[in-house]
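Q: what does this look like with zinc ion bound?
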Amino acid sequence: MISRFGAAMPTGIARRLADHLTRADGQEDCCFVLWRPSTGAHRTSALLVEVVLPVDGERIVRGTASFTSDYFSRAAQLAAARGCGVGLIHSHPHRRGWQGLNPTDHTAEERFAAQALAITGLPLLGMTFSGADQGHSARIWQRHGRRHYEPLHAESVRVAGEQFTATFHPQLMPAPPAQATQLRTVSAWGTAVQDTLARLNVGVVGTGSVGMQIVEALARTGIGQLTLLDFDSVEHVNLDRLLHATHRDADLHRPKVDLAAETARRAATNPDFRVVPLEASLVEPEGFAAAADCDVLFSCVDRPWPRQVLNLLAYAHLIPVVDGGVRVATRNGRMRGAEWRALTAAPGRACLECHGQYDPAHVALERSGLLDDPAYIVGLATDHELRRKENVYVFSHAAAAAQLIQFITMVSAPAGIANTGAHLHHLATGTIDRDVKHCSAKCPYGGELHLLGDAAPRVTGSHPAAEKACTARHSAPVPVDSPPPER
Ligand SMILES: [Zn+2]
Ligand SMILES: [Zn+2]
């Protein structure tokens, strides 16, 4: 039984629904959709994958919209054939905001709940489209007993791809009251954007030099929840780049997520702020499930395997991934240049693989454990991308800022533009390259993996280096002369 529910759709589906449900004569309309489940640690999302429009005679519009049982059967059979669930969406043309279930809607949906489950094996999805603000509301009809079906309301309905928008259930996800601390922020982009940010669960994968700065910025900006993933400890070699890290943190080999969570709580301006730190890798099942609960993910990792997993989350699970990185070019001990990049992976935009952010051939190397084998790494050419270690604080800072700009642009759409493409900054020339390409024709992320949700191939596994790091930390004796870090 699902206990926390959400719905999500790509921009293209949202447009198709708005086109169909917005009638010139102002009357109510309806249609069916197909959906697939995407399951996280706590929340299950219904991903809308297809709109099944009515053909002649399948639905009747007379003030209110009704449909024939043939139309329902056609949609349900189609759903079953594709391994999907079926959903009914109808419009409230003049309403705005989240729509609950009035008695008429309740009866109409309840009538098809048993058949939908019997034909597709998945519960009926019910949705309402508010014509006045183009927002969506959703619920799922679960079986509680013989002929007993009850709606479970969604916490939010997300639209992702070009722009990120969301509507929220007013009781399950209330907007926090306005904060005096956020006056300057809210006066910049308005209450609507702030109310969205305040209710998002944003994942930061990797809380190293770039991730730690992103965590700080998101907490101050007023994000509702941060989910933090990292299995590394603070070491002395990090102190030149890791925001907030002290010598004592390094002496104690303090988990980076622990430091990130503590400093995020200190910086947060959202009164309902929550932070979930996980000493795990994204490629482990526990890390993956936590990431699948997020609304947006920041990729602050440099390894190919987690980047591939993030790519899958962006396209198969519809969770936009804001990726970035730094590359410093040196020769004979001198810096020749530096580049930092920021881009967003989501349906309708090119993926991390098509942007060359990881090489799929290297994923197999990492999974085999070779990338954590010092002998293997030493054998690589000194300028091999898997060996590069050069980085400095200012470049991490620049990369973090560039990633945050991607995120804010996607959510706030200044001047109506939410997608400004991938950005590559060059230090030596002071220029920025902008790339608005799409996935290649053969790319599986833009193709067969698109919106597969739980049906996507498993990409997680055991990660010996992450397990070793966590075990070592928890079995290591704490030096008696150093007090535990402040909480
Ligand atoms: Zn209605
Ligand atoms: Zn691609």
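Residues 228 and 277 are 5 Å apart (CA to CA). The pocket of zinc ion (ligand 2) is lined by residues 350-351, 353-354, 439, 443, 445-446 (CB under 6 Å).
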